[in-house]
Specification:
Length: about 230
């Protein structure tokens, strides 16, 4: 059996921004020249602290008084001990009526300006409409736990998954670890002596619910075992 060659799908920039925002446990808010680091978002997430609205919507318009530029900065960090753990940076910018206060008891209204995601592939801009329409990945809130569980409790399964990678991509690899997981599949980071490459292993079917994760991951392992058996001499 040949290495895994199912059609590779991956989240859109809007889906990634939505999921990073939903899963974030911290962020930096920059208003009026002040940087405020927010941690432990109490399960409310970023949008529980700051809600976004369309500047074209007159029903949610900010007061005409001086408005203050605001910037929300989030980082997406790999939960596993891969080399170069920074996966992406997300920046949401816009305007607020007053300087943001971390002690505020109510959600702050932010007139949306733009959303930007930057990663190894480059930079992408996401509109408010795209962000609102993008589904949150069902794995967003539990991806970290699932990947660390895989590395810590089932380290033998990572070399098994590596069998699904094309041989030419494994040349010179000294270590492989799971880097990310989303509704479309798992990404492995293949570390070389002085560099790395990332390879996606797509699920047979994209997840629509987190309860499907075990079944789809199991399908990848089954494909890897079959691939290995096919290489055995008759």
């Amino acid at each position: 059996m040949r290495p895994h060659r199912a059609r590779t799908q991956q989240p859109t920039p809007a889906e990634r921004v939505r999921s990073i925002v939903a899963a974030a446990h911290s962020m930096t808010v920059v208003t009026d020249g002040r940087h405020q680091e927010l941690y432990s978002l109490d399960g409310a997430g970023v949008l529980g602290r700051i809600h976004l609205h369309d500047p074209a919507d007159p029903a949610q318009a900010l007061p005409a008084a001086p408005r203050i530029p605001v910037r929300l900065e989030l980082t997406d960090i790999a939960p596993t001990p891969v080399r170069d753990r920074l996966r992406a940076r997300v920046t949401l910018s816009g305007l607020v009526a007053n300087a943001y206060s971390a002690d505020a008891t109510e959600s702050t209204c932010m007139e949306f300006g733009q959303a930007v995601i930057e990663d190894a592939a480059g930079r992408a801009y996401v509109s408010l409409e795209e962000l609102q329409e993008a589904p949150c990945d069902p794995t967003a809130s539990c991806e970290a736990g699932m990947l660390t569980h895989l590395v810590d409790d089932h380290p033998d399964l990572v070399p098994l998954l590596l069998r699904l990678v094309e041989p030419r991509l494994k040349d010179g690899v000294v270590r492989a670890l799971p880097l990310a997981m989303d509704r479309y599949g798992v990404t492995l980071r293949l570390e070389l002596p002085a560099a790395h490459r990332d390879v996606r292993l797509p699920f047979p079917t994209p997840l629509t619910d987190i309860d499907q994760a075990g079944l789809q991951f199991h399908a990848l392992l089954t494909a890897a075992r079959r691939s290995s058996h096919q290489r055995l001499p008759a």
